[in-house]
Every structure is written in structure tokens, then in C-alpha cells.
Amino acid sequence: MTSMLIAISVLCGIGLAMALLLAVGKRAFAVEVDPRFEQLMDVIPGANCGGCGLPGCSGYASALLAGTAAPDACPPGGAELTMEIGRILGMEVTVREPEVALVRCAGGNSESPIRARYDGIDDCRAAHALAGGFKSCTHGCLGLGSCIAACTFNAIERTANGLVRIDPERCTGCRNCIAACPRHIIAMVPKKEVVHVLCINPDKAKDVKAVCTVGCTGCKICGKQSPRMVFDGALARVSTDANDPLDPSVALSCPQGSIYDAREYRLSDWLSSADTRKHFEERAAAWKEAEKARKAGARKEKPPKKDDDQPASSQQEVTP
Amino acid sequence: MSALTFAGGIHPAYHKDRTSGLAVQAIPAPQEVIIPLSQHIGAPAKACVEPGAAVKVGQMIAESGGFVSAPVHSSVSGTMKAIEPRPGPMGVPVLCAIIENDGTDAAEDTAGTADWKTASVADLRQKIQSCGVVGMGGATFPTHVKLSPPPNKPIDTVILNGAECEPFLTADHRIMLEHTAAMVEGLQIITRILDAKHAVVGIEVNKPDALDAVRSACASTDIRVVPLQIKYPQGGEKQLISAVLRREVPSGGLPMDVGVVVQNAGTARAVQQAVTAGRPLYERILTVTGSAVPEPGNFLVRIGTPVATLLTHCGVSADRMGRLILGGPMMGFAQRHADVPVTKGTSGILAFLETESAILPPMACIRCGRCVRACPMRLVPSQIAACCDHRLFSHARAADAMDCMECGSCAHECPSRIPLVQKIRLVKAEILAARRKTA
Amino acid sequence: MDRTLIISSSPHAHSGVTTPRIMWTVVGALLPAAAFSVYLFGLAALTVLAATVVFCVVAEGLAGLAFGKPLTLKDGSAVLTGLILAMTLPPGLPLWICAVGAFAAIVVAKSVFGGLGQNPFNPAMTGRVFLLIAFPGPMTRWPVPSGTGDTLFGAPVSAIDAAGAAVPAGSAGVDAITAATPLGLLSEQGARAVDTLSSGIEIYLGQINGSLGETSGILLLVGGLFLMARRIISWHIPFAFLGTMALFAGITHAVNPERYADIPFHLFTGGAIIGAFFMATDYVTSPLFNRGRILFGAGCGVLTMVIRLWGGYPEGVSFAVLLMNACVPMINNITAPKKFGLQPSAAQGGGHA
User: Fold this and answer.
1) B209 touches chain C (CB under 8 A)
2) DSSP bridge partners of A102
3) How far is CA B350 from CA B162, B324, C11, in A?
4) Per CATH, which fold does B121-277 belong to?
5) Does residue C15 belong to the interface with chain A, where contact is any CB pair within 8 Å?
6) Tens of pLDDT, residues B163-196
7) What angle do CA A112, A114, A118 make, to 5 degrees?
8) Is C22 on the interface with B (CB under 8 A)?
9) Binary contact (A119, C6; C-beta < 8 A)
10) Which range has the worst mean pLDDT, A138-152, A165-179, A286-300?
11) With contact defined as beta carbons under 8 Å apart, do A215 and A237 qualify?
12) Nearest Cα to Cα of residue C248 among C213, C272, C214
């Protein structure tokens, strides 16, 4: 009985002594932590995606406190987080327009056929380094999914047609996929933007047509429909300078069908559904008919302007 | 003397018998040559002839783009048609000069150095540089750079690489047999430029006729000819030095760090031609062989000749061909079509039958250690590949990947057919990208 | 050109030695010994062999489905695991126990770790040890080989009686009695009970009782040397393993011949040969580097002898191999070769300043 009591009291004594030591230690060696650090960590998403360019979310929080990171640098957090950070740090913030990543290639296996049988690892960078990849187009999406592996938010999936698609709802804009793509196909676009040119092949029209049926040839017809369509050499792009919504005719006017309009089709259908393509082509043909009729009507009133003919002639030029 | 070798390495099937006995045959210049302006490691050459201009054989069409660079010369006489991007041997389009052949072979006047034994070393280097000589074993490093070691790295030994350890290839073998004197003179020129005390020729013992020929050509000189064991990659610079001199080039270092310069047999011949005749490097000897080639051979080919022309010459039927490789089977580059030109670094063209080109999916690594025993750099390829799979590019094992020279021994031996070299390349690319980012 | 070419990374040549070929070669090297066990024990051995292999293949298939991995039955690894496991089991073992062993070997030891190449422990050894611990009775009931009668190599019958195993088996249709293995005798009685054994030829031929693969040392040795000649296995592990055992046995026998048996007895009884050539050499669970392999083999040898001479079990090969399996990552770390260019070379600096 006595030995039991001794044992119990010794243990309790040790426990007490240790607790005391801990309590003293906590006071003596306390590290000053900015209370705002914890507050920031509570609101930052915690995905550690690296989208801010800093090592992890705690790195971002520290950088915010040190004043070396911008309050709108966290893409997954978005505008809400920027506001929160502004509130915590007590500073004026400007909310950044949310952006999502977009794979700018619609040339699947049926549009840009496979020109070599690839025998190697499932990695776009490895395949790209090998004789420029197995696809006809040396700029197009290889679809092996290096971006999928890089995405921490499961926002990217393969399509049935040998491409990849980024779900704009899941994409947080962290940009990890952009670095993973050896062909630099992925770019950030404003989330609210609905019209996109899905091609990055900068080659001449003849060379583009030789490798892909939906590649942008730089014919500049879309430029006639909207001033927001701008051109980098032989490649069309939707400029982000202005805000006006693009007319659906921009997409319909493209003879190659390189322009995707999110108001009309789901991206997954656009990339891999033959029916969707057919539907689009019928609409485009109808639009062109209507346009021709409209022009014919206009011609009756006044002689045709010279640049109206230009698209047609340039189109003929590029047809092999 | 017993044959020397290095540690590690493999014994692939060599398949050299089909072409090793065939004398080099000159291929007529094609109607049109496609000459890439960057056929070497380093800065691309800058075109110096306008499209439309007439050019002669041996005329410089692109000048050196820097110190680590080499000029490019026309291989035919005729008209420069265009300078435009064309598919290069690495798959990506490269800037090429397209020259239409007028068939006259009018040559640019060239003059050699009368007596290289008395000429100044700077003149000799200048000659080699202006003739566009690069390493012809496949690496295409500009030769004049290799012959200009910094003063704090004195060179005591020049090794002439006659190992030709790549299976199938026999071009260097034929050079050693048919151009023995030129090659040996080239070696002497290189030795003089580097002021090296020793010159050694290393030849694998599977080329006894070449050994005899080079031995007798070197009889009156103080060049040492050493037989090497038949083993791949005996012709790797570091392995060759290890075999011949028992010196290990430090990790991340160059042969000059141990006082050695290694030159390929074909390069020595090109040096001799450049110095004694002032003849630019506009043609090379290469081997065309493989199971899909009915009439294989060793050929003297103008730089810029389309591979398709050579394949037709050798009777290759395109629809029976499954794989087309520029270079040797161990380190060569697979092509997706034959519309690529022969360059200064093309040591061979291999075409394999569709029937033996099956794609076999890789299996799980069983940790058998064959890659470890095969690796001449004493790395652990399976672990570097695992780092690739798990994206651990900064892992210590992955860091060793930078020492990999991509000889392919590991993947050749891997029973699970894991594309180890491809994975290691990816790791290397990632490490380099990370270094650039932090730099 | 209509047809497309294949593009792949260099090298474009391959040795032709593939994983399935390696696996099937090892299976082939084991077959003579397996056939001999069937000759010795008849149907009792055949059923155990066939059933274990089939169970292992089925387990591999089911595990593949369950874990969503592609089926890898053709690579022969499951067949090999089954065969090696069967070789460590006593003839006439109830088939349901074989099934449990196959499950332990394939699913518990291999698939849950990620399948072929990922398992830290030798699957067959794990299966055997699992059974040995779970079913000690059936796993140590050794039928006497047919034809040797009930005088066991001239060993006194009293020894067998003392081992407490002279019970008619009757199971699996074997007309035989069960008895202790030579190692069991040694463990119970000391070397005096078995010293007549190593002077007889039976022990080398395999005319002894024990598990299927414990029997024919000569045929296993032939199979092992065949694998070595085909460069499937290297000499390092088997030689280090058996050499260490021999050294250990030689010293202990010299010190006390009354208590400890001699070298041939130790090498040719129990699972020493099959363990050294077929189990310890399993690629996945043995070290990568040759230096490490010697260390690994020596460790196996020492542990086996320690268990045999002073442990609670008469045989220790499977425990030894499993224990050394656990050391493999550490062995790999300490025996990794220095990469090329990190060693100061002898002749360096000789020729230049």
C-alpha cells in the first residue's frame, strides 16, 4: 500500500515539476507573433498551391505582414480574400479581376492528326522534347496531361479527343499549369470573358492548314466583326483592353472555326463533340448566307467598299 | 598489350558486320540541299548570303555567331533559294538555307597552310574555326573551342577516339582504314595546337584491321595506339579517358580538368583537311544501315542532303519502315519523317522494319539492379527515374542526374523496359529550369 | 508518307531480357526440385504445389481488380511467388491453409504496398512465416518420404519418438508417418542425433523429410547455378549467405561437435539452399549494389545460424531473410557507390602540373 502511494506521489510530483517547467519556459522563451498572422492564416485558403509565388500559404501571410506581397496576389482566394486581407491589415485594396487558365488549343486527334507513334512516358514535356511531339501541329496540345499533374485543384481533365480542358469553375488561377506546359498553350484569361481564340500556332496560313483543320490562319476576318479582335502576326487574339461584350458573329465569321464562344457551347462539347462542330458549321454557313444577303442589299444602295472583299480574297489565297 | 576498358557498361548486339567491310562510296549531290544554320552546340550561325545569290561549293553561307559557334558552308554550287525554317533533326523547325544545285560543283578557291609544323598555333586554330569544324561523333561541339583550353588547364594528352562503340555504325571504322594518314596527320596537328606531350589512339578490338592500319601509320611517330575492350560506351569521353589513362574526370568537369582532350576520328580528318587544304566541312562520312535497309553502306554525303534521298539510294521502302533514327541506336534521335537533312553531326542513319518496331509498354521496376551495374557513371538510374515519377526533382538522387550523359546503357538493360533515359532527361531539364529560376 | 513512324527516346535498342522472361526462367530453375518433391511425396506434394500457385495467381488477379491496377498476371511473378511459397510448405498441408498463405503472400505482403516492385518484404517468405505462426501444428507436421520406410536414415527411432511426432498422418492420401525434420532433431537432441545423417548420401539427394523445397539440395543447387550462369542472379548473395553459414557451422562444430552439427549438414538441410539461391536473391527485397548484396547475404547467414542453433525454431532461413529485408534500405544507403568523378584517380596529375 505504501509503495503504491509512493509511486503515485512520485509520478504526480514529476508531472507537476514538468508542468511548472513548461509554464516558465513558455513565458521565458515566448516568440512574439503578430496576432494578425493567425487571422490571415484563417482566411487564406491553405491550398499551398504556390500561385502567389511564395513558399506556401504561411509564407504569403508572412510576406503580407512584411509588406512584400500584394493583398491581391492569392489567386484562389480571389476578390473576397483581397477584401478580407485589406480589412485585417487595415489597408486600401483594389480587387483584381478574377482570371482563369485556358488551354488555347482545339486541335484534337481528328483535327490535327497524329503523325508519329509515341513510345515513351506520359508527360508532355518528354514527348515535346522528342522530335517535337507526335502531333501534326508542333504547337498544339499533346494531351498527355503534364498540366493535370501540376494542378492542385483537380480542375483539368482529358477530353475524349486527345486534348485537355480546364474547368473554369474549379480553376483558381494559380498558374501552376502554365509553367508545366512545354508548348506554352495555357494562358490566363478574364473569368468573365466568353469568346476565345483556341489556337497559338503562329505559322503562315498554308502551314497551319497543313497541320490542323481548326487552327487560326490569321485571315483577320474576325477583326472585321469586332475591334477587340487583335492580331499578333498571323494569330488572332481577344484583347483585354476594352470591356464590350463580343458579338456572336465573331465566332461565326471564322472560316476555320478557331474561335470558341462559351455562350453557345460547352467547352467539353466544343473540343470533342463532332455534333457540336457540325451544329456550329451549319450556323456559320447560315450566318454567312445572311451576311452575303445583307451585303448584297447594301451593295444596291452604294458600291461595295474595297476592304469588304479582302477577307474573301485572302481566304482564296490560303487555300492550297 | 591487353585491351583496356572502364567500369560498368554493357554488351549490346553490335550488327556492324553488314557495313564494316564496305568501302566508303560518294553519293552524288542532290538537286537541292537543306543546310541548317545551327549544326553545332553554341550560338547559331548568322546567314551571310542573301536569297537569290549564287554560291559555290565551300562558300561560307553563315558566319560564326560567337566564340562557341561555327560557320556553315555551302555543300553544292548553285543558287540560294531561301532561308526559312525547316524540320530539323531534333523535330523542331530550324532555320535552314535552301540551295538549288546547278550540278557544276564550282568550288570556292581555298588555300591550306603550307607547313602546319611551323605555322603559328593561332593561325591553325583560325583555319579550323573558319572551316566550320565541329565534333563529328554527334555532339557537334565546335572544335576550335576544344582546342583553346584556358591557360590554367594545360593539356598533356590528346586521345583520338576510334572506339566507335555505338552498334551498327561503321563510319569511323572506314575512316580509320581509308583515311588513316589524314586522320593521323589531323591528330598531330591537334597535338601541336594543344602542345600536348602524348597522343593516343584508342580503338576497340572488334576492328583489328583498323588497329593494324593505324598502328602501321603511327609506327614512325610517337603516337601510342591502344586496343580497347569491346564494351559500350567505350567511346564516351570520360570512359575513354578512364580506360586509357585511369583518370577520372571530376563530376561536372570536362576532360581538360584532367589534362586531356578527346577528338573523334572523323574530326581529326576534318581538321587535317581544314589545315592542309583549307577545305571547309561540307561533307561527311556516315553509315546507312538497319533492318529496313536492303543495301546498307558507308557513304560520303554532302551536308544538307535530305535523309529521304539517302534512304531511296539504299533501297529503303517507306512503308516497311517502322523507326528512323539519326545517329546510333543507343544515343541517336528518332525522326518522325525522312524530310530532315544530314548535318555535321549525323554519324549514321538507321532504318528499322515495322515488324521489329513493336511498342512494348513498360512494366514495374523490380529493382533488379541491372541499370546500376550498367551505368558507366556509377549512378542509380532506377532511383533517378523514381524521382521523376514522384516529381521529386530537388531530391539528392535526382541531383546526380546531371552527371548522366544519356548513354542509354540503363534502359538497354532494363528488363521492365522502363524509359529510364527519357525520365532522367526530364529530371535534368527540371533541374536546369530550377537553376535558371534561382539564378 | 501514310504510315507513321515510331518516335521514342534513345536508346532504340534493348537487351531482350525482360521481366517476364526472368520470372519464368526462375520458375523453370525451380521445377526440377519441385518435380523431385512430387516424386518423394506423391500427390501430397503435387496438390500443395498446384494449389498454392493457383491461389497466388487468383489472389494477384483479385488484388489487381480491387486496387484498380492493370492485370499483370503474364509477368509470371505471381506464379513464381506461389511456387516458392509452396516449396516452403510441408507436403499434405490442407489446401485452405495454402490459400491463406497465398493471400498473405500476394495481398498482404505485395499488393497493399503497391504491387510488384514495391514490397519491402519477400512475399513468399511473408506467406510462409504467417502460416508458421498462425498454424504451427499443420506447418510442422512432416510426412516421411515414401520409400524411406520408418527407419529414418538410421537415426534411432527413439529420437523420432522423443520428437513427439511419430503419428500417422493419413491426410492427403499419403501413406506415411510424420516425423521431425533433421533440423528438428538437431534442435531437440543435439548433433549426436544427426551426426550419422551427414555421412549418408540421402541428405544431399533429398531423401529426407521436410518441406517440399527443403528436400533436394542438389537439384536446387543445380537450379541456382543455372540462374547464375544465365546472369539472372549474381553470386554475391548466395555465396555470402552459404559461406557465412558454413563458417558459422564450422566454428561451432569445431568447438563442440557433440552439440553442433557439421557444415554439410547445415548447408543441405532446411531451406538453406533454396533460401540462398531463390529467396534471398529476390530482386525487389534485396540490395541494389554488389557490396550491399554481400552484406545482405552474410546477415542472412548469421541470422539463420543463430536461429537454428540457439533460437526457438529449428529452422531460421525465412525469418533471417525477412529480417534482412527490413535492413535493405539501410544497406542500400551505406553501400551506394560513389558516382564517377568523385574518386581521386591514381594516375591523375602524373602527367601535368
Assistant:
1) no
2) A187
3) 20, 6, 13
4) Rossmann fold (3.40.50)
5) no
6) 999 999 999 999 999 999 999 999 999 999 999 9
7) 145
8) yes
9) yes
10) A286-300
11) no
12) C272
Confidence band, pLDDT 50/70/90 cuts, at residue B283: very high
Q: How is chain C split into domains, by residue range?
A: 19-139, 143-179, 186-333
- In chain B, whose CA is at the least distance from the CA of C337? B378
Distance CA B367, CA B373 (A): 12
Q: Would you say B231 and B9 are in contact if contact means Cβ atoms under 8 Å apart?
A: yes
Q: Show the beta-strand stretches assigned E in B281-320.
A: 283-289, 297-302
Reported as a single tens digit per residue, the pLDDT across B66-104 is: 889 999 999 999 999 999 888 888 777 889 999 999 988
| Strand, helix or coil for residue B337 | coil
Provide the grid cell at C291.
557490396
Chain A interface, mutation test: which of B324, B422, B424, most A Cβ atoms within 10 Å?
A: B422
Top-confidence residue, C27 or A263: C27
CB-CB contact of C76 with C23 (8 Å) = yes
- Looking at the partner chain, which of B197, B338, B380 has a beta carbon nearest the beta carbon of C288? B380
Q: How far apart are the first and last CA of chain B?
A: 49
- CB count within 10 Å of CB C199 equals 12
Closest CA to A199 of A169, A237, A167, A165: A237
What's the grid cell of residue B152?
Answer: 590554367
Cβ neighbours around B129 below 10 Å, total: 21
Strand locations in B111-234 (E) = 157-162, 198-204, 224-228
Residue C167 has pLDDT above 60, yes or no: no
Q: Which residue has the cell 518441406?
A: C211
Category of C334 on φ-ψ map: left (φ > 0), alpha (ψ -120 to 50) or beta? alpha
What residues have CB less than 8 Å from C237, skipping those under 6 apart? C276, C280, C281, C286, C293, C294, C296, C297, C300
Contact B249, C341 (CB under 8 A): yes
Look at residues A246, A225, A249 and name the one whose alpha carbon lies nearest to residue A308.
Answer: A225
3-state SS track over C27-53: HHHHHHHHHHHHHHHCHHHHHHHHHHH
Whether the model clears a pTM of 0.90, i.e. scores above it, the answer is no
- How many residues are present in chain C? 353
Mutate to test the interface with A, among B336, B416, B423, B436 (most CBs of A within 10 A): B336
C6 touches chain A (CB under 8 A): yes
Domain layout of chain B by residue ranges: 121-277, 370-438
Return the C-alpha cell found at C313.
525454431
